[in-house]
C-alpha cells in the first residue's frame, strides 16, 4: 500500500512551488500519494492548527504521513548564512501517526500533548532557499517507507510553545473564522458577547451551533474543528464574518469586551 502524504505549506494557493515539491516527492518514490493544503504565508498558527485537525480529528488510517514546510526564519532577525533555517523534525504521536515538519513557531504546538517522540532529522538546513524541494523530500520519502535512519537526536518537548489562546487559526472560503478557543473554555450560556477583532467591534450572538441564529446575524458557536471539544467559530449566517471583522488573519488576537 502506498503512503498518503498531507503536504501542508505556505507557498500560496495554486503556487507552482507545490508542483515542484510534489514532483520531487514523486521522483523519490513514484508510489506516494500527495495532497496539498495551503496556509497563509509564514503562518505557523494555521500550520499547527491543520496538523492537529488532519492528524487527530479526521479518521486515522494506516500509511498516513503529514509533511509540513512552514519555516518563517523569524527566530533570529539577523542575516542567515546560506539561507539557514530551523531543524526539520520527526514526531510520532501517541496514535502512531508520523509528522515531519520544521521546528518553528507553533508548528508542533497544537499536537504537543500527543507527541510520544520528537527528534531532529539529519538533513541539510542551509544552502538552499527552497529546502523543502531540494533537501527534504528525500528524507520524507525514506520515512514514508519506514526508513528512520536519518532520524537523529531527541528534542525537548518543553521547548515547544503552547498553542496560542484566543487567536484566529483559519478563515475558510465562506468567511467563517475558526479560533483556538475550546468550547469547554467558554460560557456558552450567555446570550451575546462583544468581540473586538481586526480593528472592528461587533455584538455577536452565542449559540450551540453556527446556524442557531437568524439569517444575517453574527454568531459565536462550536464549529467543525477540534474534535469532541470543538473550537469556537465566528460566522455570519448567509454572509462573511471575516468581511465584517476586517478580514483577519491567523495569529490575530480575539478580544472580548
Which helices and strands, and how do they pair?
Elements: E1 4-9, H1 16-28, E2 33-38, H2 44-57, E3 64-69, E4 88-93, E5 98-102, E6 115-121, H3 131-134, H4 136-144, E7 151-154, E8 168-171, E9 177-182, E10 192-197, E11 200-206, E12 218-222, E13 231-236, H5 241-244, E14 255-256
Parallel strand pairs: 1-2, 1-3, 3-5, 11-12
Antiparallel strand pairs: 4-5, 4-6, 6-7, 8-9, 9-13, 10-11, 10-14, 12-13
Helix pairs in contact: 1-4
How would you describe this protein?
It contains five helices and 14 strands. Helix 1 packs across helix 4 (about 135-145). It folds into two domains: about 5-160, S-adenosyl-l-methionine hydroxide adenosyltransferase, N-terminal (Rossmann fold); about 170-255, Elongation Factor Tu (Ef-tu), domain 3 (Beta Barrel). The chain is α/β, with parallel strands linked by helices. The strands form two sheets. A seven-stranded mixed sheet has the order 2-1-3-5-4-6-7, with helices on both faces. It has helices spanning about 15-30, 45-55, 130-135, 135-145, 240-245, and strands at about 5-10, 35-40, 65-70, 90-95, 100, 115-120, 150-155, 170, 175-180, 190-195, 200-205, 220, 230-235, 255. It starts with a strand and ends with a strand. Strand 10 and strand 11 (about 200-205) form a beta hairpin. The protein is elongated and about 55 Å long. It comes from Haloplanus rallus. InterPro entries: SAM_HAT_C (IPR046470), SAM_OH_AdoTrfase_C_sf (IPR023227). This is S-adenosyl-l-methionine hydroxide adenosyltransferase C-terminal domain-containing protein. Pfam families: SAM_HAT_C (PF20257).
Amino acid at each position: 500500500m502506498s503512503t498518503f502524504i498531507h503536504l501542508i505549506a505556505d507557498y500560496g494557493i495554486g503556487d507552482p512551488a507545490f508542483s515542484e515539491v510534489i514532483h520531487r516527492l514523486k521522483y523519490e518514490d513514484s508510489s506516494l500519494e500527495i495532497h496539498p493544503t495551503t496556509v497563509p504565508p509564514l503562518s505557523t498558527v494555521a500550520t499547527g492548527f491543520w496538523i492537529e485537525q488532519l492528524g487527530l480529528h479526521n479518521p486515522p488510517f494506516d500509511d498516513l504521513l503529514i509533511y509540513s514546510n512552514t519555516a518563517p526564519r523569524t527566530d533570529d532577525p539577523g542575516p542567515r548564512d546560506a539561507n539557514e533555517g530551523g531543524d526539520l523534525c520527526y514526531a510520532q504521536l501517541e496514535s502512531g501517526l508520523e509528522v515531519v515538519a520544521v521546528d518553528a513557531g507553533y508548528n508542533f504546538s497544537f499536537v504537543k500533548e500527543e507527541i510520544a517522540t520528537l527528534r531532529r532529522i539529519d538533513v541539510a538546513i542551509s544552502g538552499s532557499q527552497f529546502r523543502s524541494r531540494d533537501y527534504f523530500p528525500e528524507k520524507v520519502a525514506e520515512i514514508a517507507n519506514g526508513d528512520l535512519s536519518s532520524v537523529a537526536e531527541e528534542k525537548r518537548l518543553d521547548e515547544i510553545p503552547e498553542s496560542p489562546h484566543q487567536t484566529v487559526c483559519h478563515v475558510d472560503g465562506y468567511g467563517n473564522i475558526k479560533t483556538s478557543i475550546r468550547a469547554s473554555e467558554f460560557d456558552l450560556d450567555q446570550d451575546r458577547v462583544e468581540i473586538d477583532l481586526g480593528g472592528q467591534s461587533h455584538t455577536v450572538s452565542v449559540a450551540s451551533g453556527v446556524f442557531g441564529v437568524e439569517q444575517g446575524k453574527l454568531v459565536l458557536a462550536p464549529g467543525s474543528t477540534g474534535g469532541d471539544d470543538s473550537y469556537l467559530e465566528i460566522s455570519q449566517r448567509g454572509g462573511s464574518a471575516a468581511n465584517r471583522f476586517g478580514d483577519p488573519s491567523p495569529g490575530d488576537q480575539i478580544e472580548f469586551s
